[in-house]
Design a protein that fits this description.
Layout (H helix, E strand, L loop, with lengths): L5 E13 L3 E8 L3 E7 L17 E8 L6 E11 L1 H5 L1 H17 L7 H15 L4 H12 L22 E4 L4 E4 L14 H10 L14 H19 L4 H8 L28
Parallel strand pairs: 3-5
Antiparallel strand pairs: 1-2, 1-4, 2-3, 4-5, 6-7
């Protein structure tokens, strides 16, 4: 009996050659999570599916969806290509990294409508000119629970207070207030501004962001400390992140900051001109 084709909505996150004339197209779908489809004849001249399976295309498709193994893509009903990730190599790198990171956290075939919506809103934001690095930071922070890491980013992880200066402590599992700083000499010594954004990123709805204005110093510090969290507690390092990191070799704006040193008596002053 022939397998029945179904309609599905998805975002193309990658495409690669497969055999002589075919290709594998990976989608983040609204209904099934990540699914990999074989697209027959995609590499042939004038293949109908070629233009509608470019990375970062959103559309309604028809295909045979299988629980195990490769699914089979049949046709597309209507698609939209997000232009910015295709036009700019840096934006493309960040978009690729964001979807790679989601895929590393969540197994293929597991329905994740929340992350489908986030991925869609990331691409909409990129097309509107939102800062790609900050969008990646937001996804990194919000994805931590899916990796089994759920730092306390609302209140002090030790006493529950939220009305004192905060810093990040890996040993305490999140933020600690100034009363407990002496208990962790290895706390991040992050600026108040960076802590503010880390807290904000944990709850913000990307689809509601109208603009992003974060100065380069704070962006570099955010990248430094979020990278440290991932390195020390998650261990996820997609290939696409290596390319982003390599940008710092030739562009000063991409270079992370060295770790901050504690100021005398743990007193820190930070402007708020973001």
């Amino acid at each position: 009996m022939a397998e029945a084709a179904v309609d599905f909505t998805g975002i193309v996150v990658s495409r690669q050659d497969y055999r002589e004339h075919d290709a594998l197209v990976r989608f983040l779908t609204q209904q099934y999570g990540f699914k990999t489809f074989i697209a027959r004849g995609l590499k042939r001249p004038k293949a109908k599916l070629a233009g509608v399976t470019l990375p970062f295309t959103l559309g309604d498709y028809v295909g045979v969806v299988r629980a195990q193994g490769l699914s089979q893509l049949r046709t597309a009903k209507g698609t939209h290509l997000f232009r910015q990730p295709m036009a700019d190599i840096v934006i493309n790198a960040y978009a690729t990294y964001i979807f790679d990171l989601i895929r590393m956290a969540i197994p293929e075939g597991q329905a994740i409508p929340k992350w489908y919506d986030i991925g869609k809103n990331v691409l909409l934001g990129l097309d509107r000119g939102l800062d790609a690095g900050i969008l990646a930071n937001i996804v990194e922070i919000q994805l931590l629970p899916a990796f089994g890491v759920a730092p306390q980013l609302r209140v002090c992880a030790i006493c529950g207070r939220d009305d004192r200066p905060m810093d990040y402590s890996e040993s305490a599992g999140g933020l600690i207030c100034s009363r407990h700083w002496a208990q962790d000499p290895h706390r991040f010594h992050a600026s108040a501004k960076t802590i503010y954004y880390m807290r904000r990123f944990s709850v913000v709805n990307i689809g509601q962001i109208q603009s992003i204005k974060v100065n380069n110093t704070t962006k570099a510090e955010l990248r430094t400390f979020i990278d440290r969290i991932y390195s020390d507690t998650v261990g996820a390092y997609p290939r696409s992140k290596r390319f982003i990191d390599s940008l710092g070799q030739w562009n000063e704006d991409f270079k992370p900051l060295p770790p901050r040193n504690a100021a005398p008596n743990d007193q820190r002053s930070d402007d708020h001109d973001d």
